[in-house]
## 1
Amino acid sequence: MKPNLSIIILSYNTRKITLDCLRSVFKDKGLEFNSKKPSLTEKIPTEIILIDNNSEDDSVKEIKKLKKDLDDPSVLKIIENKKNLGFAKANNQGLKKAQGNFILLLNSDTLILQSSISQTLKWLSAHPEAGTCTCRLLNPDRTIQPTGGFFPNLSNVFTWALHLDDLPLVNKIIPPLHPHSPNFYLKSSYYQKTRQQDWVTGAFLLTRKSIINNTGLLNDDFFMYAEELEWCYRAKKKGYSAHYLIGPQIIH
């Protein structure tokens, strides 16, 4: 069965958290990982592409053990790199192999709560005007974690670099690169509402394969950090919007 969703996870010396992440993904009741015995209920056929950047902590060995325990081991594909290629280049390996109509970039240091992946995918499927979306990211203590925001410009980079965006009213005048969470003393409500925003973080970035094909892969000139921001910028120039959802939630 051809997958409708491809989940791409990057691993680098994060054996325990990667295994915990994978187990949490498999618990999403809206996803179908056993393509040999399709569920009688409507589920989303899913594949996972795990890229390991030459870990030295037996990550691959333990992930292969987990793979053997699956009813259908073929749903978990493992790419073993001989060196650390960085975030963008390694994720691009997964993007090239992904067969799904939808693609989820998911950090290995995340835990899926309830059925957040399938919930987010159903939202994106029901909103053809939306190109990309993310869910609510939570800290381990369940407080809200900032994720994405406004594209950088001279004004908001200046205020961010000098911490001027920590002052009252500044963010109301200059849309911030990275808005504050509601637990910051300014008590911003930005991440307490479902909204359209300029960019979303690569910790949980769900998009369509057609948008990847039209926008291009991540820019692998970025070893790590800001590559998802740059990709969202290119996608928006193509007319694709990004959205933040407060219903589905993960721990990051």
## 2
Amino acid sequence: MKDAWGVNGWHDGPLHMLGDFLFDGSFRNLWPLLVIPFLTALISDRTARLLPRTPSAWPAAAILVLAPAASAAGALSQALTTWGTILTWRGVVLMVVTPAVAGLLLGYALVRMVLRQREVARLFRAASPAGARLAAASGRLDVPALELPTLERECFVAGLFTPTVFISRGALDALSDDELEAALCHERAHIRGRDTLMLFVLALARDLAPYGDGAALEAFKTAREANADRAAASNAGSLSLAAALVALARPGPTPQGVLPMAKRDTLRWRMQALLDTDASEPKRSWVQVAGGVGLNLAMVAWPAAQFELMMMFCERW
């Protein structure tokens, strides 16, 4: 028996009820692309807030950033790799509308990526070779560095395949020699960790599923800052690094696609971690974090599972 759309009827019994609940209606073919990534992003953001501000948190944070994009990509791959005769509106939604929506999301992510890379390219064009003082310090630490002709206190790493430290003349004037060494040690940790490359990938993933407030990506940045702080404190001393953070902390937005040395909204916990060795991080439940990561992985697997179930319940599209 066929319905009004030319689709073979559902199987009788419990499977009929389950199939009717999950898959009856063409709009439900958009669930994996629209609803599932949205729910995954909300779970990611909530779980990310449970992560401690420690270097060990970055793998979990990276998974939480990637999960929404992976769930959207799973829905798209099912639509693009399943070809056949489209006989119904349900098939049109799965095979035509879903890829079209995915194309819009992909276009948005690519535009954002291009804008970030253009800003980084602009920084390379605006920078000049390091002056004598910066060249001596960066050469001693084996860190590629360029100087920005501005009196703003800027210090950050930028560059995808050739990560480079950018330090403004205003920052150089504000830093003592010990503080400059601590800042360069911090940025060297970012370079050695390939943090700019990881940030590039995760920012693209975030834009593929631009839902929620981005707490997972911020948790990743926090963990990598904690890792760089630890490395710099070990090499240059906690007091010098703390003084450099205070000197360079700046309000407002930073250039896209870069890792700034210090921001005012992160200064308090970083100073506490550096100077108060007896302070303990508020207890965070890794069990809850594991549960959130596990739930996200289930969401990622849903598009393939949904397609297999639809193949069980519907014989023709």
## 3
Amino acid sequence: MTIFVVIRERGPAWDEARPMREQDGWDEHAAVMDALADEGSIVLGGPLGDGDHRFMHIVEAASAAAIRDLLAADPWEARQLTTVAVEPWEILLRSP
């Protein structure tokens, strides 16, 4: 398995007038993401910076294609969120 960094950004269905947890389909999105975290595919994830414009996930998977398959189950993919990068991450530093 390889560690990947996944970057997602707001997609075309994002309602700028509502916060993240009030977007259409939040409960379904959260259930999919929680399941991916529970199974160990998503190691870490959440919004970057001070808002909810960009999101980063650290994912353990066999390939970038496998990650795209996992995210295809997310009802937000290509709607509220667009995956803009899936890149392998070579970890050189790690605390004990």
